[in-house]
Amino acid sequence: IAKKRLSKKxxxxxxxxxxxHEGLYIVTGNLPHDAKNTSKQMKLFSNKIQTIVSKKKxxxxxxxxxxxxxxxxxxxxxxQLFHMKIKDNKLxxxxxxxxxxxxxxxxxxxxxxxxxxxxxxxxxxxxVDAVKYIADNLPNKYRKKLIKIYLRLHPGxxxxxxxxxxELNNRKYRNLIVIPPDDNIxxxxxxxxxxxxxxxxxxxxxxxxxxxxxVINIGASLAESxxxxxxxxxxxxLLNTILHDIKNNRNILKKINIxxxxxxxxxxxxxxxxxxxxxxxxxxxERFVIRxxxxxxxxxxxxxxxxxxxxxxxxxxxxxxxxxxxxSINEYYVNDR
Length: 337
Known about the structure:
Number of strands: 12
Order of helices and strands: HEEHHHHEHHHEEHEHEHEEHHEEEHH
């Protein structure tokens, strides 16, 4: 049923190790990493949201969401899963607020490196190439103000940490400070204290925009259709935008639109939160409903309960600490590459 439905729509299907996007499309109605088109769908969805949810309710949600994000309350399980111990309000050593500080937050490379919808709108081969381009072309200082670049590697890229650190350290940048994925600095606090934030599709961009911080995103993102921060698709435009902001000659960054940011954050929390085609009363009664027709999905009694057991184990493991967990996560990413 799934293959037949997808072939009729002429949808190109991506399947990654342990990321079955074809299944996610069938269940929710879209491919999660196709940021550009998902953003368009989300924008249409937000038009409906505005007619049924008050601005006051949306703002209250966003205030609470950002409050919890800044206190790291939403990331306890992630911290345990990736063997991280975030220390609230911790900045990198020797961080000086008198410098011009740029914070760069990368997304997980293994999730987006081979997606045509991402790579065709990204002006570099890899995310680390974007970092090198910025560090190569920015001066170490402007007038008497030092320019510092703080690169935060994604927690999901533990397996490639040493490779990335070696590649950047070999270039001996004076103005680039690389923060490993398992470092305990507070990423949001770093963004809040920086003069400019650069992302590559990270949710960090919208969070910091809501806090009235300046943000540049390289390539596509889920917020693209909402136009709440700058999206840049060309190398030269990226460099010119950063230099203009440093020199304060002509600020070409978008003015922050808080109302649109609120709409985006609220819409993102509700968008595809319910299955579109997949209906289930329990794990023994699962169906596809397509054009009013219902198709039963049945597997053996043994398989269903084995799946349930794996789900339970998957919920329990993140709450246990130990070196075996860190090792297993590293092996997970190495084997999936």
